[in-house]
Amino acid sequence: MGYTIENVTVITWDDELKITKNATVKTDGSKISYVGSKADDINESITDIRIDGTGKVLIPGFVNAHTHIPMTLLRSYADDLNLQTWLFDHIFKIEDKLNDDDVYWGTQLGMLEMIAGGTTCFCDMYYFVDKIANATSESGMRALLSRGLTNDSDIDDYSDDYRIKEAIDTFTQWNGADNNRIRVSFAPHAIYTCAPNYIRAIRDTAQKLGAYIHVHIDETMKEHNDSLSQYGMTPVQHLNSIGLFDLPTIAAHCVHVTDEDMDIMKEKNVSFVHNPGSNLKLGSGIAPVPKALQKGLNVALGTDGASSNNNLNMWEEMNLAALIHKGVTMDPLAVKAEEAFKMATVNGARALGFNTVGQIKQGFNADMVLIDISKPHYFPEHNLVSNLSYSAQASDVETVFVDGKILYDKGEYKTLDKEKIYYNIKRVYKRLFLT
Amino acid sequence: MGYTIENVTVITWDDELKITKNATVKTDGSKISYVGSKADDINESITDIRIDGTGKVLIPGFVNAHTHIPMTLLRSYADDLNLQTWLFDHIFKIEDKLNDDDVYWGTQLGMLEMIAGGTTCFCDMYYFVDKIANATSESGMRALLSRGLTNDSDIDDYSDDYRIKEAIDTFTQWNGADNNRIRVSFAPHAIYTCAPNYIRAIRDTAQKLGAYIHVHIDETMKEHNDSLSQYGMTPVQHLNSIGLFDLPTIAAHCVHVTDEDMDIMKEKNVSFVHNPGSNLKLGSGIAPVPKALQKGLNVALGTDGASSNNNLNMWEEMNLAALIHKGVTMDPLAVKAEEAFKMATVNGARALGFNTVGQIKQGFNADMVLIDISKPHYFPEHNLVSNLSYSAQASDVETVFVDGKILYDKGEYKTLDKEKIYYNIKRVYKRLFLT
Questions:
Q1: pTM for the model
Q2: CA angle, A342 as apex, B309 and A211 as ends, to 5°?
Q3: Is the ipTM reported for this complex over the cut 0.85?
Q4: How far is CA A188 from the centre of its chain?
Q5: How many contacts, defined by CB atoms under 8 Å, are there between A and B?
Q6: What is the pairing mode between strands B397-402 and B405-409?
Q7: So where are chain A's domains?
């Protein structure tokens, strides 16, 4: 069974961005089986469902390349505070109370928001990952999940580390599940929470299993300066010296990375995940994205957790990525709309190693979003990509496909039960915050 | 006739922000006649209409304190270009072709977008202002309108200047119209487009008529440096030396104003209109808003024209205002959510001289917006103001009141004809861009 979307405008790219009007896009099972303008070429099955794409745009689903989904539970909690107060007096205290049931429902809440906003894939780091994987499987979303690993005891042997054991169990159980919709990576949290030997142990484990690495790098000036004092190296250089980048690595934040750091990242093919909303809100600074693009790094986009954003809206991140660097560098060409759009889609898929995701292309997974461009902020139509990057809103999303399956259509969730999730979020909220 | 909104959460402030749950808000004609928690106190008329506000939030309508509404026609036109190329090779060329019919429909398109996003009032500078006033009157929105005045010929007598004459005519015809919903100000465009004596002539004219001043100040580093070379003063000092600030003044942009400039603005009670989206997009820089707030200036928010934003979405400006200064100063307390919210509402109303607008308060004009907070990005409800500033979307707007009249309700426009506007925008677009 598949879908045939007719008369639709398709945005995609190989090397360059391409807009095809009046196109037909066909799916067959989980894949895109046709993209083109000749409807006659299509092998249509009697069970196929036709969708009229007139006045609509089909884009690849967004890839949120760095987040902590269950932290939706902490959205707008303890806001506008100093980072240390926020983290130590508020966030960590509540996180200590979280159980697997909280994480399950927090994840589902995050998915309601992501799906409705056209995000089809995400890269997560948290704990109780089995519950996150359960929720992901049920929702139909695509994800690269990881157990955040922290241990700053500098010992020789981490073979008893319960966190690494958990991460291995999760990998064994979930990696490749649901037609490879769910994969599992290994996540040394950051250099300030992991001893060098611990990072080495994680790298060795991930290498044996053939897993990706997901890590926070150089988020704050404090992390950067502490690394220089402690190791005589920047965080990137320190992690490189441990050999972490010999594995495919997703580096979140990269706010204070140097020119030389970016050269290392380029050489080692490390993906640079920009989290503009979170970096601004926490006062972390502004990542050197224009330079990273010049150097040819793969720059992806993420929301970070909702506790420091405060939403999971990739349209806003795309908008911020296209805007803030122009202002800070006073160069109106710093990051173009088209580049921001690529960061939010194909670059994210590449970072996560979903190699047939992020484009509307024959043979690729049918992770696609149909956008309603009939609202006033799409008129007149001078430049569709500019309209999408600078003017669009998450609520313009009409239909969301992942792996050829519809997850959301005209405000209705097809896999998640919104009322049940709200009910449970209120219950969890009472337990965590009112008792 | 009036409306009685029951069981609603109201956000307003006198000096401090105040959230009242389960409130009743009543309107009588154009005014708010009751805000409180005791429904019994209300004098209800038999013709009153009841609205159930359960699960909704009532906020003051947004005041877009600096824009050029008809420039919706140039949304996403010639994007991501160098400022000089953009302005001289593209924008000015098209603006030369614009006629009054284009401006009328461009204005209506802008109003569709503003109203649906909860903006109830705006401060405009453009030309063919009669047409903008016509459209404003029909739409039911509140506005302070002005004819952008430019003349860099340094002569002694401007009494024949056709632009000033037009501005006076517009003032005479429209100032105070529609129950004072429409007022008219005088707008010397900027110091780089107006000779000092021309600004003096405008000031004298405005003074006689008792009008406000609306002016671009210190938008770019070039303007700042040119002013220093040409006048030996910053743009603020130059305008102050001409006596412009003896009149109530709305200063748009203020990106490069100095500490001393802000002291002058404070002393002269000049309102500082922050346009973060436009300043970022054009690479103009980042205005010193935290310092302006510390100095006690009245800081309001604007979108600027859609050609440099690219939308008229005050939620995005509020979000940017709350975020970017934290990132740039690396201080997570730089501009709090609550401050951004005030900028977008009550500070804007003060800037424009609408002194009974911008608060949900007895005796104030009923310019109010009902927000649907049932969407996932409002859960859980830790902090409503944070949710509204950081997480909300324009599409959460459900009902929009101006002067006690409903302009928009659940996706339906009550005063504007969307299909007719789209038809005419397409017609105008063809004439301007395809012929």
A1: 0.97
A2: 140
A3: yes
A4: 17
A5: 213
A6: antiparallel
A7: 3-61+357-413, 62-352
